[in-house]
Amino acid sequence: MQSVEFQKQLEASYDKQKEIFLAKLEKYGFPDIASYQNARLNEENMRKLEAEVIQFKEYYQFTNQRMEELEELLRGKTAPDLTLLREELNKLEVEKHTVMQRKQAIELEYQQLLKVKDKLIGLQSEYQKIANQYYDIGELADLARGGENSKKLSFERYVLATFLDEILLQANVRLDRMTDHRFQLLRSEELAKRGAQSGLDLEVLDHFTGRKRSVRTLSGGEGFKAALSLALGMADIIQSHAGGVQLDTLFIDEGFGTLDEVSLEQAIECLKDLQQDHRVIGVISHVSQLKEEIKAKLTIDSSNEGSIASFHIG
After folding, report:
1. Is 277 helix (H, G, I), strand (E, B) or coil?
2. pLDDT value at position 198?
3. CB contact set of 11 (below 8 Å; sequence gap of 6+)
4. Where are the alpha helices (DSSP H) in the chain?
5. Average pLDDT over residues 121-150
């Protein structure tokens, strides 16, 4: 009897729990037990969900704690003006865009400069090859130009200086007679100033003082004697170097009026010596003493009616 009673109690308890279970199924949207069984998760998925729940709770707790800290920091603070910040942000965006454009331009220019650099390296290499090929020629050119020697004397001026030395030898023979052994023409050895080439400047040695000075310091009469001596010396050298060439005629235009009486006599004696060498000397002058010494004269007389030319012999 006791077992029958116990069984009835169990059946009653089962039915009650079943009603509660079915009510909960209906409450949560399960029409029957089969739909509930299909919706149940396996153990692996359950463990994953449990882990996600735990992680969520931890993150939720951390977030709440962080929010409390931020609320404490912001308590009593004034909220910033976002309008001004947005304007500043827009301004910075514009500057950023400008900087980016400039950066792109610089990168483009940099690439172009790299190309120019490569081209220059190629040209430098080519130039070096050419320089090596023409090194000796360049050395000779610099030597001939006079830029690589201490005297600033080009090859052309060296040749001319050689001829000038020969001319001075002949010129000084006559200048010595016309100046009573006082003056002697010399080629200057001083370097020209301001980058000019040297080698053809003249100096005069004054035997009265024993000093050399520039030919520009000569007086009018002394300068005429020096010029006449140079002209005669040049004529002698040209004639000696040019085989078959005879310079038998020489014309002198004025200059005698600057000479004193003694100098004029010396110049006339020098011209007479030239005549003895079978040379024809033509003198254009208004000096009376010179006219008397010249035997053959072409005289020009001018008047209101015109000029008259006449020859006078003797």
Report:
1. coil
2. 65
3. none
4. 2-27, 33-39, 43-74, 82-133, 135-145, 155-178, 220-241, 261-276, 288-293
5. 78
Residue 99's pLDDT band (boundaries 50, 70, 90)?
A: very high
Is 0.70 topped by the overall pTM?
no
**198/293: higher pLDDT:** 293
Taking the CA atoms of 56, 59, 61 and 67 in sequence, report the sign of the dihedral they define.
Answer: negative
Q: What does the pLDDT read at residue 196?
A: 54
Between the alpha carbon of residue 273 and those of residues 253, 265, 268, 270, 279, the distances in Å are 19, 12, 9, 5, 9
Residue 314 has pLDDT above 70, yes or no: no
CB burial of residue 250 (10 Å; 0-12, 13-18, 19+)? middle
Long-range contacts of 157-164 (CB under 8 A, 24+ apart): 157/197, 157/198, 157/199, 157/200, 158/199, 160/199, 160/200, 161/187, 161/199, 161/200, 163/237, 164/200
* Residue 59: pLDDT over 90: yes
| Rounded to 5°, angle at Cα 252 from 250 and 258 | 150
How many angstroms separate the CA atoms of 85 and 65, rounded? 29
| Burial (0-12, 13-18, 19+ Cβ within 10 Å), 160 | middle
Identify the pLDDT of residue 249.
76
Between the alpha carbon of residue 149 and those of residues 49, 138, 139, 204, 221, the distances in Å are: 101, 14, 11, 26, 38
Contact residues for 264 (Cβ-Cβ < 8 A; gap 6+):
256, 287, 289, 290
Query: What's phi and psi for 310, nearest 5 deg?
Result: -145, 145
Does the pLDDT of residue 78 top 70, yes or no?
A: yes
- Nearest alpha-carbon partner for 258 in 217, 218, 313, 298: 218
